[in-house]
Structure formats: C-alpha cells, structure tokens
Specification:
It is built from eight helices and six strands; from the N terminus they run H-H-H-H-E-E-E-E-H-E-H-E-H-H. Strands 1, 2, 3, 4, 5 and 6 form a six-stranded mixed sheet that branches.
Length: about 250
Amino acid sequence: MYQTDLTETEWQYITKVLNLQERKRKYDLHMIWNAIFYLVKTGCQWRMLPKEFPKWESVYYYYRKWASLDVFDLLLDRLRGHVRVGRRQNMEPSVGIIDSQSVKWGNNQSLNGVDGNKKVKGVKRHIVVDKNGFLVAVMVTVANIHDSKAAYLLMRALKELCSGIKVILADGGYRGELIENVKNKFGYVIQVVISAYKEQGFKPIHKRWIVERTFSWMENDRRLCRNYELTFDSAEEMVKISAIKLLLKKI
C-alpha cells in the first residue's frame, strides 16, 4: 500500500532472525512492522496511523514490547553484519566513528536542554557508526550535555553490546582526559582527527565525514527531523528503527 511497506524478501529475513512463529493472531505482524516503518518515515502521530493498518494501540503495544526485549538491537546487529559480509567485510567492525547531533524539540512535554554552541533547544543524539556509516550504538541526552561526558556513557552502552570495535575516530570535542579514561575503563582507543585545512570553506575530513552522512540519512525520516519522543529510550529506539529500515533495503 505504501512505499515503506516491507517486501516479501525483507519480511522473510525479519521472520528468520527473530524466529517468529506462525500462529493465529488478531493482527498480522507483517502489518505491524509496516505501520511502525510508516510512522518513522512520515512522522505522523500514533493515533494518526491510517486505517489500513491495525489499531494504533496494538501497533504501539508491539513497539513497546519489542523495545523492552531488545528486538530492535538484535535485528540491527544481524542486519549490519549481513550487509557487511555481503560487501566482503568482517561481520563485526573494528573501527568506529563517534559524533553527536543536536535536534530541536517538537513536543513541549519532552525533556530538553539548550546547546549553547549551536543555539539549539532540544536533545542531542550521540552515535557510533562503522566505516560504512551503519549504526552501531546510540544514546540520547538533553542538548546541554557536553559530548565528552555523554561519550563515556555511550562507551558503556557499546561495551554492553559486545561490539568488536577497538579504535574510535572522533573530532576535537572528545579531547582531554576522556581518551585515557575510556582506554583504561573500556579498552577503546579514541583517535581525535582534526582538519588540517587552513583556508575557509567546508572540507570533508577523511573517514570522519561518514558519520555526518549517517545523520543526513536519519533526517530522511520525518520522525527524526525533530524530537517528538517523551523519553530518551523511545528516542533511541526510533533511531534504531530508522537504521533497520535503511539496512533492509541493502540485503
């Protein structure tokens, strides 16, 4: 019905990874996934889902259930590995790239802060991606949290995912004692890459520009153009779903 609908190949992949059992249900899980992808792409409210989909309460129930069971984390990890192997790369990345993005708030009830450097009132997304730009880990904080402080928490989340990353490329915002603390605590080596260009104008920095491209991919989904989520957990899950949707098109 919609461009965001899963193809049969994509749905069979999800069914295989999540080991979904075929049994009688009130709503087809295929339609539930289609509804979630439609919501992320279009940015509509849960209650504004088209009538072609199951009732929004049912869609939201499965969304919260899968988020609490780390289903989106599992699917993202398997998809990223599958696509990397298809590109003749190791399933687990050894090099990551870290950066943050300040996002304006779109809901007056959501938690928010002010990023003084970018003059943005809202939240900040901190992500680690591999050399292809595929999402590895994400953490959402209020916008006034400095990158170096949030990075320490992000490294802890990265460690919990049992990632094989050893080296992390970063910009100048991650300098200082953070580098030594992360190496001693988590074993990750943070390499700060700073532009060597003196002249004015934009110059992409080798490898580090990849994470900026990932942010632009995320902004193709209207749900992520602003922060409409009431909790940080939900904001992180929306980023993961966006990454899953992207990777499904590459299998």
